[in-house]
Amino acid sequence: MENPPDQTESKEMMLPPRTRRPKGGLLTMPFIIANEGFEKVASYGLLQNMILYLMSDYGLGVVKGQTVLFMWVAATNFMPLVGAFLSDSYLGRFLTIAIASLSSFLGMVLLWLTAMLPQVKPSPCIASAGTNCSSPAATSSQLALLYSAFALISIGSGGIRPCSLAFGADQLDNKENPKNERVLESFFGWYYASSSVAVLIAFTVIVYIQDHLGWRIGFGIPAILMLLASIVFVFASPLYVKRNVTKSLFTGLAQAAVAAYVNRKLMLPGQSDSYGCYHHLKDSELKAPSDKLRFLNKACVIKNRDEDIGSDGLALNPWRLCTTDQVEELKALVKVIPVWSTGIMMSINVSQNSFQLLQANSMDRRLSNDSTFKIPAGSFGMFTIIALISWVVLYDRAILPLASKIRGRPVRINVKIRMGLGLFISFLAMAVSATVEHYRRRTAISQGLKDNATATVNISAMWLVPQYVLHGLAEALTGIGQTEFFYTEFPKSMSSIAAALFGLGMAVANILASVILNVVKSSSKKGGVSWIEDNINKGHYDYYYWVLAIMSFVNVIYYVACSWSYGPTVDQVRNDKVNGVGEEEQEEVVKIN
C-alpha cells in the first residue's frame, strides 16, 4: 500500500534535477574552448603564408603586400576593443561571440572563393619562348573582395577573443563554492594551453596543407573549422549562463575625461573642505580622489548639489560630473600609458614574420642532409610558441621553486624587471636576425643567386631558429609581464581594460611597422634598388633589421626611464609594508635599484 507514495516521491526527486538543472559549469567548457580554438587555428593558419599568396596570386610586391598584412593585423588587434564595448553595453557575451563566429566564417568563405574562382583575382601569366611575362595588376573590385574577406575575419576575431575568456569564467564563477578561485585558475590555465595548442596546429598542420595541397584546400579547411566552431558554440546555447549587459567601463572612462575637460576652469577645494565637495557613491571607499594627476579631480567636483545630484544620489549628467571611482580608474589608465608604450617596439619586431618567411623560403629547410622532409617556411613561427610555453613552465615549475629553496623563502622576480629583460631580449633577437640575414645574403651572392630569388641557398634554415626562440622569450617576459602588471596595478573593475591593452599595443605596433617599412623603402632607394626588394637577395634586409635593432635598444633606455618615473608597483608597496611590520615570511621580490 505504500508503493504509490514511494513512486510519486521518487518521481518528484528525479524531476527537479532535470527541470532545474543549474546552467553553466564544466559541461559548457568544451563548447567555449572549441570555439576559441577553432577560430585561432583558422585565423593564424591563414596569416602565416598570406604574404606568399598576395605576391604569387595578386601580384603585390613585398612592401605593398606586407603593408596590407600590417593593416589587417592592426584591425584584428583593435577590433577586440569594439567587441568588448558592444558586449558589455548592448549585446551580451553570448550574442557577441555568435555574431562574431558567423562573421569570421563568412570572411573565410570569401577568402576561399578568391582561390576557387579565377575571375576574382588577376589572371596568371604564361610566358612564351623569348618573351617576358608580366601579370596584370589586380582590379579595384578584386582587391575589394579580398579586403572584405580580411575585414570580416577581423570583425569576427574582435568579437570572439575578448569575450570567450570572460564568458567561460561566467560559467564557472560561483561565489558560494569554497574552491571557486582554484576552479577559475584551472580554467585560465586550460584556456591558455588550448590557445597555444591551436596556434601550434595552425603553424604546422594548416601551413603544411597550404604548401603541399594548394590554396584551395589550404583556405577551405580553415573555413570548415570556423563553421564547426560556430555550430558547436550555438548548439550549447541552452546550457550557458548569460549575464545581463551592464554599463561599459569604456563609457565611464570617457565620461571622466570629458567631465575633467568641461570643468577645467573650476577651482579644486582645499584639504579641509574636500570631503563633501567630491561626488562619490554611498558604498564607495573613495570619499575623495588622490593627489596624483590632480587636474582630473575636477571631474568629480560638485558645483551645486541640488543641480548636480538627483534624489537617488547619482549625477544628473554623468558627462559633467563623475564619481571618485571613475576618476581614479582614469588616473590608473593614464599612469600606465608610458610603460604600456614601451611594449610597442617589441610587438613591431614580432610582426616581421613575413620577411622571416621569405628568408626561410630561400634556405635549405631539410632537417638533415639525408632527410627528404622539409619544414614549411610558415611553420618556423612554432619555435616562438614553443619557447614561450617552455619559459612559462620552467619559470613556474623549476626556476622559482629552485630559487626559493636556495634562499629559504618564497622568491618572485618583480614584474618590472621581467618586462625590461624581455625588451632587451627583443633587441638581441633583431641583432641576431640582422646577423643571420647578412650571412644568408652573402652566401646567396657567392653562389651566384643574386638575381634568382626563388633558388634555394645552400645554408640551413635552422639558423633562423635562435631569433624565433628569442622572440618567444621576449613575449613571455614582456607580453605576459605587461598583462600581469596591468591586472595588479588597475582596480578590479578594470580587468577588461587590462586584457585589452596588450591587443591595442599590437594594433598600434602594426600601424607603426607599416610606416617604418615604407619610410625605409623610400629613403634607402639608390640606383633603383632599396633595402626592401621583392628579390630578397638584391635587397638589404639585414640593414632593415639593424634599424629595428637600434630602435629596440633606444626603447630599452626609454623603458628604464618610464619604470623609474612610475615608482613602486602595488606588489612592491605591499611588501614594503610587510617589511615595516616585521613579518619574516614575506615574498622576496627582486627590485630595480
UniProtKB/TrEMBL annotation:
TM spans (from-to): 69-87, 94-113, 144-167, 188-209, 215-241, 375-394, 415-436, 497-520, 541-561
One Gene Ontology MF term: transmembrane transporter activity
Gene Ontology cellular-component terms listed: membrane
Primary localisation category: membrane
SUPFAM superfamilies: MFS general substrate transporter (SSF103473)
Region span, Disordered: 1-20
Family according to the record: Belongs to the major facilitator superfamily. Proton-dependent oligopeptide transporter (POT/PTR) (TC 2.A.17) family.
Protein name in UniProt: Major facilitator superfamily (MFS) profile domain-containing protein
Species, as recorded: Brassica campestris
Lineage: Eukaryota, Viridiplantae, Streptophyta, Embryophyta, Tracheophyta
